[in-house]
Amino acid sequence: MCGIVGYVGGQQAAPLLTEGLARLEHRGYDSAGIAVVGSAVRVVKRAGRVQELVGAMPKRIAGRTGIGHTRWATHGPASDVNAHPHTDATGTVAVVHNGILDNAGALRRRLEDAGVELASDTDTEVIAHLVARSEADTLEAKVVEALAVIEGTYGLAVVHADFPDRVVVARNGSPLLVGVGEKEMFVASDLAALVRHTTTVAHLDDGELATITASGFTTFRADLTRTDTSAHRVDVDPSAYEHGATGTEPRMHTEMLEQPASVERTLRGRLDERFGTAHLGGLGMDPRELRAVQRVKILGCGSAYYAGQMGAQLIEELARVPADAEAASEFRYRDAVIDPDTLYVAVSQSGETVDTLLAVEEIRRKGGRVVGLVNVVGSAIARACDGGIYLHAGPETAVASTKAVTTMFVGFALLALQLGRVRDLSVADGKRLVAGLGRLPEQIEDVLAGEDRLADIGKTLARAESMFFVGRVRGYPVAREGAQKLKEISYRHAEAYQMSELKHGPLALISPDVPTVAIVPDDELTDRNIGALHEIAARGGPLVVVTHPGVDLGDLVAERIDVPRNEKELDPLLLTIPLQLVAYHAALTLGHDVDRPRNLAKSVTVE
Ligand code: F6R
């Protein structure tokens, strides 16, 4: 949430900063701004998108050092004055900040009592005043002094008119990376802003600070002692990041269409056809350790949590190990009992979601073993886990998660397969699933090829103010994910329910104005599910049924969406994809910006 960029080097900073911000806009898009250090610190900031900031930029804003920010509002509404960077009264210091200061109220009062006039409603502004009021000799020491009175989370970057050759950054709970160039250095909250310039990066740890100058960087702790954080080359394809800044097609659409390739990448090198199992070296667990696992507990947020529910079902079915998923955002607050025989699995696209990260840290503090299913390599969650499975979905920048969710499902299938094959899952069943996983990319193509029809269904659903998504057992997390996609980007009310629970209350809401999207795969529960559809139809509820070819829906009047058959355990993946497209087209019909839905941002790094 919120994006930070910074630059020191031989080039003019302003265009580099705005270009970096455009690449980070998915992280927050209600306002943006930059500060450039030339003969003085100059700040330009605006409510609205980065494009509006670029439009407002004066012709000449010279300086080879600068910082920039794109904001997702926490303290105070999106306005010019609340946009970052924030400065002290004299404009000597400028600060950009991700995260939330818990004691901002007290610090604001203290500053006001000392005669400081605060210009904005933000928590961040206090940092600028604190740095400016420090009498320390160096910028590093001034920042450290300010941080000493701050409580909360931050990734922040500071520039100062008296130290025009440097940017000082600090991290506590919000990611920051230093990018190493040729006689120039970068800093950013996300690799996406760096890859065009460099893929040699250093990840800062919590509690760490860094100074970047044109000639290099140094890292240190709050007592000003040096740390030995070094830069390394990350194995990413910079072209994979290009679309976000330049493309006209919504990023969400591109990402949905990338799913055959992303699923193939998740599978690559991990399937063992001969023994019907998976190889997951990154888990760092030998067969004995895998066998010793008594339970699996999956933790994630939002769509990652729903993918986790799909994963728990897979693990119970294939490995016959009790498994469940819980929202990490709840888990971390309930002083959970940590069981040494449970394998905890943290699932996250960004690897930054603060609730998931704090859940991981809590488990490890209490002696539990956590592995990660994470997309972003080297991210905080990936680094906090004991081992893991990288998803290899490629960069996902649309706020609504699509290709990450389907690769999470595949990651769980691989884990379930491996856990199953060290137990009682037969070679024959293992081979059956390996073959099924191998078929997925092509079958995803088939589903995507039906986009025109799914667009029509999306248009029809967009007319309804409110709707249900229902499913049973394997179908229920699919329904939850379908409802989530629809509400995020179309702003229609979509409620997911277990098919079996409808008659215990919500059936009262069914009417011709309230459609139901039902997940009805061809499996051992099909008849039960069709029974529930009749109950909905009998009350005049319009139905959209996601199912398999040949499932006899009898005389139900329903729109049906057929997805290809695979092994029934793998059904959730192919059932999920049409719901992404339906949501996407519903949102387009309603004229929404699908990549930047209101009130949301990618990567929830605040509590
Ligand atoms: C939904 C969505 C969010 C994320 C959630 C977790 O489309 O994008 O619900 O799934 O915020 O994010 P990660 O996976 O980055 O931990």
Automatic annotation (TrEMBL):
It catalyses: D-fructose 6-phosphate + L-glutamine = D-glucosamine 6-phosphate + L-glutamate. Its EC number is 2.6.1.16. GO terms for molecular function: glutamine-fructose-6-phosphate transaminase (isomerizing) activity. Residues 285-425, 457-597 form the SIS domain. It is an enzyme of class 2 (transferase). CDD domains: GFAT, SIS_GlmS_GlmD_1, SIS_GlmS_GlmD_2. The keyword Repeat applies. NCBIfam families: glmS, PRK00331.1. This is Glutamine--fructose-6-phosphate aminotransferase [isomerizing].
